[in-house]
Amino acid sequence: MAEDTELDNLWDEDVPEEDDDDATEEPTRVELLRMRADRKQVPLRIDKFLMVRVPGATRNKLQQSIEDGHTLVNGEIVKPNYKVKGGDEIVVYDTRRIESTEVIPQDIPLDIVYEDDDLMVINKKPGMVVHPGCGNYTGTLVNALAYYLKTDKEASALPRVGLVHRIDKNTSGLILIAKTEQAMTHLAAQFKKHTVYRRYIALVWGNIEEDEGTVIANIGRNLRFRKIMAAFPEGDYGKEAITHYKVLERFNYVTLLELRLETGRTHQIRVHMKYKGHPLFNDDTYGGDTIVKGTVFTKYKQFVENCFKILPRHALHAKELGFTHPTTGQWIQFNSELPDDIGQVIEKWRTYTSGMTKQLKEML
């Protein structure tokens, strides 16, 4: 996790890009906190109320933010002496200035699954950051696209057209790129309406008893550790998130799943699986990089460690992507093969489980 920037960690498994002006000098508001006060909340000044909820905030900074109109209660600007009451919805915005950023075109190989005049579908390799950010100005998918799509191969301003959605650095699989403003608008609308088909394959810890099901729990920033996300099954904090899952294969201590996203929130699959008690295999952000289920035998521990070496990332792959073409109006759908690292680990678990079954039968 240490090598990921905050922006990388907060990218969604699949989330549309927000519409954005081309201006680079104007400050923009970024939602820092959204929550609803408990209905039993005793009236308390809003600056005091937020002191324990906004990491690193001082009372003076909070008061200034409130006075500048960057803190809303029930959609309205309030004064620093406003007293929070039970049921109040509070939104705190952070203001920052968007700086002009240049993308350096780089000749990085791209696995292009499909391309026409309107869009591209790319099979992203694991370990590749999608978008340049702090600590990751080169080697990203956008750097590769800048080289591939431009003929002069010179540095250019950060493109406003392109990424319709994003997937995490260590998630492999299909990602959709718009090549025109019209395609960007059309495709982004499909993501917003949840009409895009997204199917993921994941290996998770534990034996999920039911063959299929749905996880419904809001997702928002972790209240203590702001760089990661958390599930909030009750209350209004966070944003609605719905993940459907189906068991493909069981390996006693881990389970191979098919997951379909109905919504696209930051780290949705990873957070929902952790919330369900089945973190992704080798997910170092959400507790999957240790032995969650299994035996205490040394050989088993060595087996798991060998699997971690083969798959030095969380076991998640964006396998299928389907949407309506922005120009033809036809439904198109794409499939990608599992990468070798996930495939090898699945085969190792398959062999391990088969061996355990054989030993059990011999004992009986």
Report on the biggest sheet: 9 strands, mixed
Can you say what the CATH homologous superfamily of the domain at 6-23 and 100-192 is? Pseudouridine synthase
Shape: globular
Number of strands: 19
- Architecture per CATH nomenclature, i.e. the level-2 architecture of the domain at 6-23 and 100-192: 2-Layer Sandwich
> What's the pLDDT, averaged over the residues?
84
* Oligomeric state of shown chains: single chain
How large is the share of residues in beta strands? 25-35%
Point out poorly predicted stretches: 1-28, 96-100
**Roughly what percent helix?**
10-25%
CATH topology of the domain at 6-23 and 100-192: the name is Pseudouridine synthase
Structural class determined from secondary elements: alpha+beta
Distance between the termini: 45 Å
User: Which CATH class of the domain at 6-23 and 100-192?
Assistant: Alpha Beta
Give a structural overview.
The chain has helices at residues 6-9, 46-51, 59-67, 141-149, 181-192, 268-275, 298-310, 340-363, and strands at residues 27-36, 44-45, 71-73, 76-77, 83-84, 89-97, 102-103, 112-115, 119-124, 156-157, 172-178, 197-205, 212-216, 218-221, 229-232, 242-250, 254-261, 316-324, 331-335. By secondary structure, the protein is α+β, with helices and mostly antiparallel strands. Among the domains are: 6-23 and 100-192, Pseudouridine synthase (2-Layer Sandwich); 27-97, RNA-binding S4 domain (Structural Genomics Hypothetical 15.5 Kd Protein In mrcA-pckA Intergenic Region, Chain A, Roll), CATH 3.10.290.10. Strands 8, 9, 11, 12, 13, 16, 17, 18 and 19 form a nine-stranded mixed beta sheet that branches. It has a four-stranded antiparallel beta sheet with strand order 1-6-3-4.
